[in-house]
Predict the structure of RND transporter.
Amino acid sequence: MTSRLLDLAPALSPQRWALARGSRLLGLVLSGLLLSACAVGPDYQRPEAATPVAFKEAAGWRQATPGDALERGAWWELYGDPQLNGLVESLNRSNQTVAQSEAQFRQAQALVRSARGAFFPSADLSVGKTRSSQGTGSSNSSLTSSSSGIRDTLNAQVGVSWEADVWGKLRRGLEANTASAEASLADLAAMRLSQQSELVQNYLQLRVIDQQKRLLEATVQAYERSLIMSENQYRAGISGKDAVAQAQTQLRNTQANLIDLIWQRAQFENAIAVLTGQPPAGFKLAESQSVPALPSIPLSVPSQWLERRPDIASAERAIIAANANIGVAKAAYYPDFSLSLQGGYSSSTYEDWISVPNRFWSVGPKLSLPLFDGGQRSAEVDRNEAVYDQTVAKYRQTVLDGFREVENYLAQLKVLEDEAVVQRQALESARESLRLTRNQYKAGLIAYLDVVVVQATALNAERTMLTLEQNRLLASVKLIAALGGGWDGNTDLSAREKADKP
């Protein structure tokens, strides 16, 4: 088309020449824009996933669909522990694992901005000097050597190019990058929720250990008194040496258990330090006199919570990206249409380099289409379709895993609640039996061996009750995490992240 305009140039006035050239270029641009209304490749549709109408472990549940943008609160505040709240806030600010996920999210955002930039024309400026040989003839330039046939050329040019998104390749690429960025954002939320859950579990176990430590310390003091009593009775000839040995064995075993708790507590304390982004050497948690209470989790509207699971949202958005990549691969079958414009100055001397006689320009469309690639494009389409099938299967499995986890933790909490009722009754009976046995021993009615057996039973009942309380607390944390976090209050995403969300 450009060559045809050049052929007609002598017959046209400068004004008509410019008008004719501009109208044809405008027509090309408009044609490209009209063609770009279509986009090859399949449009995304959410795949079906096997989801139950209701959970068998609780009534009032309905089907869940990914909705991680729903609000959630600071769920750790349900445990009513100000120190725990402060630790979680420190984790939100300083956890390095979360920081890695946040950096990955920013990388995905940058890819989205890059994909958006492909829709706009690109311009570049180049200035350079080249030296070339044109044979043994002479040169008129003062910068060339006539004896060597070497010519110097000075160039300064500006180039503008624009690719029309005729078949939707750029739009599908932007769709894929946007979905990947949203999946990365969901991964960030999932990692933060996972780290928060781990910290809360470690903290609750540490507080249960504090309670066990106080129990064993009190038990050690009681056993020390029993040992003294046994030694006194032995010296008085009331009891034998075996009673003293039994008392000593019972005391030493309990002291060993107490020492074992010290390193267990240190492990949880060090884990909490790392989760909050602090070196363990400078981190210390003072012992607490109480264990956080088990929160009351309403089961009337749980579907809203499961919908916000970030791993489900991430899996679905990965499908969107894979679906869009199929369109990108199919667009490779169609020709690429682009417009380019170049202009500048070229000269062999510095003196008249930037002048009208040395200017040059070129403008025109370009259509390119690979004719043969040995099946590479077809293979790329097949590969992207296989990736799509893989992400669909992963999404369905993630949904199934989500329902399984909720079912498991609901069942666990229900069983542990029933077990706690029975265990509490057993503990009360053990305490009463120990009181009666001690009175009988003091009255000289039974041997100390009988007391040792009852004391061991009572101590085991106390520790079993604490372990049961710990398991109920941990199950509640895991259930909340399986539901995607809390159910009211502030959103899980910071204001900055929501503002940057593509």
